[in-house]
Structures are given as structure tokens and as C-alpha cells.
Amino acid sequence: MARKNGRDRGIVFKKNVWWVRLVHHGRERWHKCDTKSQAKALYQRLRADIREEKFFPEKFTSKEDITVRAWIARCNEGSTNKGKGNELRYGRRWSLYLGGRLLKGISTEDLRRIQARMRAKMKATNKMKQPQRPWADATINRHFAYLRRVLSLAVKDGKLNRNPLSRFEFFDEEHRVRFLNDEELRRLKGIMPADGWALVQFAVETGLRQSEQFGLRWDCVDVESGILTLPMPKQGETHKVPLTDAAKAILRSLESFLSSPFVFPAVRDPHKPLCPDSFLRNVYRPSLRKAGTQGANWHSLRHTAASRRVAAGVDLHSIMKFLGHADYETTLRYAHLAPDYLKTVVRNGSLGVDMLKPIQIPTLNRDLNRDQEFAAKAGSVQPLESMVRPEGLEPPTPRSVVWCSIH
User: Fold this and answer.
1) CATH code matching the domain that covers 182-345, chosen among 3.10.129.10, 1.10.443.10, 2.40.50.140, 3.40.1580.10
2) pLDDT digit string (tens) for 160-201?
3) Which architecture does CATH list for 3-59?
4) Where are the beta strands (DSSP E) in 54-110?
5) Helix, strand or coil for residue 100?
6) Least C-beta-crowded within 10 Å: which of 25, 34, 166, 288?
7) pLDDT tens per residue across span 123-170
């Protein structure tokens, strides 16, 4: 390769990325590469195509090609999912990682390297001077799950032939169910203000998700019939939640129905819902620290609502309908909280003590009287001739008759 001023011609290292720079007929072209050796090989191949008059930039960037950043923006623009805020956050991060690359230029190996890089990243914060991982394995999986859905849409639209994440291996996640017991709830109630405890108690009474409770509107609440209707929850179907007497009392004590369409409106603007981040940062989390409760968040209240009902003897299918789970396996995480759950399963499949005892069979002899006496004691075994044939069933045909009819 030709060199200029001690450097390889056409190879540029800029912003921790290797680039191939070409000028042909007064038009400048830049191509991104992963390594320097890859940039050298690409530069030599493109220069050979220019010499043989085979270099056409449109074959590298045709009208059908689209960058990852542009495709993510298009998918987010038409998204109607409930968690669109998370999608926007995931899209911004993937735009930083792969934004300038074409959809057809993404390989599974590139994504594996990004996955390993995200897991190995360490970051120090102001509170924790010791560097720690900014993302857990579950968070990394959510990022790749979002990208897999975006690339699946590209396959359906004809932008890709196959999804590079179709057989991608995700990290194993640790599913922990953290709920608050009676003592923790009692301490939390004594620390929190009355209006703040009303939100916590309402979450335990209804089992709503954070977005569902803070965005709840009065037109979705029927206090008289005791039904709370969620038109578009997470699973995408209308979900009805029955209200307890305590939940009805909380709703009747609120005065927001006079001035706001939201059940829990914002403090300054009643026409907007209460910001959950502000409430968690200023009220809920400080109260948890003062109460000495560790490892709990707002979603722990939803686990608390489910665990208290399972411990009270409610079956798991009813818990599934109460929480609005679309998959029964999600509800099975609360199975170990049911009283005597495994004991009942084991007891129902047991053979029993009486059946495990050895059966005493008397020795048969040729005495007909003893045979009849034994049959009378057994009571369950009778000779075939003495049995009454049920109506509609033919008597068994002897084998000799069948053999003769055939032969």
C-alpha cells in the first residue's frame, strides 16, 4: 500500500474508528471499518475497482439501504407501545453504537462484541467512588430485545434478509421477588406523610403498575360498582381490577375529581398527572431509608399485593387475573408463598398408607366351600359367569370361535 508522510494513504483513524477515504471524480467517499487491517483491505479493493472502472458508489449506498439511526427513528415514530419512553432511551443508545452503519452491515459477531463491552463497562458515581457496573444483565437484555424487535420489523419490510439477533444468546437473569412484610409496612406507614402513604396503600390494594397508578384517570374509576378499568395496560387488552373497601375509602377521600382528570394529579398543574420520579425521589425512597428497608422499590408494592393474597389462600389463576399477567409462568413466581402448596400436591398423589400394606392372600385349595368363602370376604372378585353384563356391551367372544370363523 502506498504511504504518504509515513502514513498509509486513504486510511484515517478518527474518534477511535478506522475510516477509508476515497476521492473519485471530485466526490469524496468515507467507509467505516472495525480494524486497521480491514480498512487496508477495503482501500486496496476499492482502488482496484476504480482502476478497472468498476467502482460505482451507488452499489454501496443504494436507495434501499438505510442506516440504523434512520430506521430506529422511523420505528420509534410509528410506535404505539405503552413503554415508548424506554424505547426512546434504548434507541438513543443504539444510535450511538451503530447509528452510522447500514442495516445490512450488522453481523451477529458485532453484536456479541457490543454485548461483552456493555457487560465489562465500569463507571464510578459521586455516591459510590468505587467503579461499578452501570447496567445489570437484565438491563442489557432489554436493550438487545428492543434491537431484535427493530430488526424484525426491518426483515418484514424487506430491508434485511435475516435478523442477526434471531439466534442470539441473552444473559441469564436472576428473578427475585421482593415484597414488604407486615412489620416493614407498619414502619413505613409511621414515617411517610398521610398523602404519600395513601399512594402506597392504594398500590398494595390494587396491585397496579407504576405507570398505571400514576396515570390513572377518574373516567376509568367506578367507585359505586367497585371496578377499575384499564383500557390499554401492558398486555394490550382491557383489564378490570376489583376495588377493595380500603381502596374505595382512599378514592372517596381524594378531592382531585373536582379539579383534575387524574386521580393523582401534579402539585403545581392539576391537568397533568403526578410525576412518579419526583414522588419516588423526594418521598418514597427517603422513607424507605428511614424505615431501614433495603432492596425494595415501587414494583415491590405490586409483589406485596400478590404475595399477601397468595399467603391468604387465593389460587394462582385468580392472582393472574388480578395482576393482569399475560403469561401464567409470570404468576408462578408466587407459588412458593402459598401455604402448604407443595404439601397438597404431594399428598394428592400419594398411594396412601392402607394401599402400601402387604395384601394377605389365603392359599387356595380344591375345596369349593373355602373358595366361595374367600370370594365372599373379598367382595370385589366374582366369577365371570355370575357377573351381570351391562346393557349395550357384547359378551367377549372366545378365541376358538374367532379362529374357526376365520379359518
Assistant:
1) 1.10.443.10
2) 889 999 889 999 887 778 899 999 999 999 999 999 999 999
3) Up-down Bundle (1.20)
4) none
5) coil
6) 25
7) 876 666 678 888 889 999 999 999 999 999 999 998 888 999 988 999
